[in-house]
Amino acid sequence: MHTLGTSHNSAPDTLSPSTDGFLSPLLTDLLTWQTAILILAITAALLFLILLLARLRRGAATWTSSEETRWAAWESAIRQALWLHGRVEEDMLLDIPLKERSEAMRRFVEERPNDDLVFRLDPPRIELAAPKRMKTFLRHWKAAWETVESEATFQTIAAILASQLCDMLGFTMLDARTYRHLHGYVVKAPALRLRVPPRFPIIFLRKREFSPDDINDVRNLMNILNMTSYFALLIDLNDRPSQLDKRKNLKYLVRGAIHDLIVLDGNDLRQLIIARDHERRLIKIILSQVDLTVVSPYVTSGPVPENMFFGRDNELKTITRKVKDCSFALIGGRKIGKTSILAKVYRLLSETPTYFPMYLDCQAVTDYDTFFEAVKSMWEVELPSQSPDGFRRLITRQASEWTGGTIIVLLDEVDALLSYDLLAQEKLFRVFRALSQEQYCRFVFCGERMLHARLHAPDSPLFNFCDSIHLSYLEEQAARRIILEPMQAMGISLADQDTLVHEIMDLSSCHPNIVQYICQRLIIQINRRGSRRITMADLEAVRTSSQFSEYFTEVTWGNASALEKLISLLLIDQGPVTLSDIEALLTQVGVHALQMDIEEAIRDLMLYSIIRKDGQHYVFANRGFPQIIKASQDMPSLLDSLVRQIAV
Ligand SMILES: Nc1ncnc2c1ncn2[C@@H]1O[C@H](COP(=O)(O)OP(=O)(O)O)[C@@H](O)[C@H]1O
Ligand SMILES: [Mg+2]
Predict the structure, then answer these.
(1) Which ligand number lies closest to the CA of residue 513?
(2) Ligand 1 environment, Cβ below 6 A
(3) What's the total number of domains in the chain?
(4) Which domain holds residue 409?
(5) Domain match, 249 and 265 both
(6) How many C-beta atoms surround the C-beta of residue 3 within 10 A?
(7) What is the pLDDT of residues 450-473, one digit of tens each?
(8) DSSP characters over 430-462
(9) Whether residue 393 sits in one domain with residue 492
(10) Residue that terminates a domain, selected from 419, 440, 471
(11) Interval between CA 502 and ligand 1 midpoint (Å)
């Protein structure tokens, strides 16, 4: 009992400091009820809050989507007014509530920073920064549509529209032809950063709907206009061609054509006119209709056109500044850019009245006969005789006629001619040297190992005759421009741009042709998946492809001898080496070459920019070479076969 009693008394103590045994049970009950009600109230409030939030969110979503549809309708109303009148005013926007019109116009302009539009207040309106052009266009565009039945009137209007386009895009009109219901204007385009031919036609189709026969006619007209390329801009008079049946819609019909036909309808032309940068907008329209690979400006063979020539400022400066007083020899490996520089020097000198540049590609020249034939046909001159002396007389005669300027003879790929000349006591190059020394003319030669060797041979007329310029890789800045500028022009972005550019430069060592090749492969890669963004994974796919390693090996190693190849293989994983290290490495694989031959091989490896001299040591100049060769070649068997080739 004592225990119970103790227990009974202890409970109230814990609830209340009161020692009143009667009040305690009541208080407990009250508290329990209060707690229950409180919990219920909180739960109800929470539920209410959750429901309210959910409703609000649903409401907001409905509001947003209806707002968006409303905006799309308003945007289209503003665009229609702009397309029709060339400007937008409040009373043209009856579908937009009056109090919203001003704000809608402001938003329309703000969302189009690449269009040359201006929003003005008092009264609220949208204007074009250059309204006259649009006004003239709209007037003639409407007239063109209305006169499709009358060839003569249409032709006059088409000519005005064509010259307006040329004026806006910086094109020069060269020729005009009418064929059936087609009116073609051949234009010369400035150097666009796209592979678009420098001359192409703008063709107006005097029709409102089309058939496959029209595409045939376009092809015929292009033949009549002597167009060697397949590119043309076709003008479709429709403002809303999408309303036409697909079989009558020009944009659909050209898809089946093998030609790269770009269709510009009323909508496209207006887009072009209102653009801040007309050329950029044209590129955008072109890219929306053809494959990236069709217009990608990257060039991987032959000299680069002006718009894809990057870097080489020092070389160009040196030659153009000094060529009046001395001759030059440009030497370098395969596809390093010799012809590109020579062609650029030719262009630069042609623009200077005090020079008479004469360019000759000696690629197909193997002896005197082919050389003199090339001189006669390419320069359109009479040679006094088909001999070195005949060439001498030709130049001295020209020099006496062309007073007031210096004749500069630019000879590309002279290696084969030099080899032939060597067999004939170098008579021709002795004449070249004499002509230069007697100041009748100057020479700029381009070549590879033969030219390189003769420049260093004391018994050669080339010894101490020319200033030689060794062409190697581009500077990083120029390589970066090759990668970025054409990509930007095509609207292609690079994920993690800096790393990607850096990786490309590393892989290519800034070899101009390898950079262009990589970029072209990247374009093919993204084009395949319909993307406009290059990622590291794309570069990885190019880097690990067999096409890339084959191309790389061919460009860097294509003209190397077996001994040169062997030496470069032996240097992989070696770090800096001296000449005697190289001799020792060769001996280890059983090759006992003459020191003279080893030295020549090293000189040529430097000419090809595979290795370079660093003090007394040789190191790889081509940073990508060791990895690419290791990853793509069966090293032991390649070594074996090279050793056997040398032994023979
Ligand atoms: N200055 C340059 N800028 C951009 N690319 C170049 C330049 N020079 C050369 N290339 C690239 O190298 C390729 C070969 O150029 P080319 O002048 O024919 O070289 P080479 O005459 O030395 O064989 C070109 O098609 C182009 O891809
Ligand atoms: Mg060349």
Answers:
(1) 1
(2) 299-304, 308-312, 332, 334-340, 482, 512-513, 516
(3) 5
(4) 312-471
(5) yes
(6) 7
(7) 999 999 999 999 999 999 999 999
(8) HHHHHHHHTTSEEEEEEESHHHHHHHT-TTSTT
(9) no
(10) 471
(11) 20
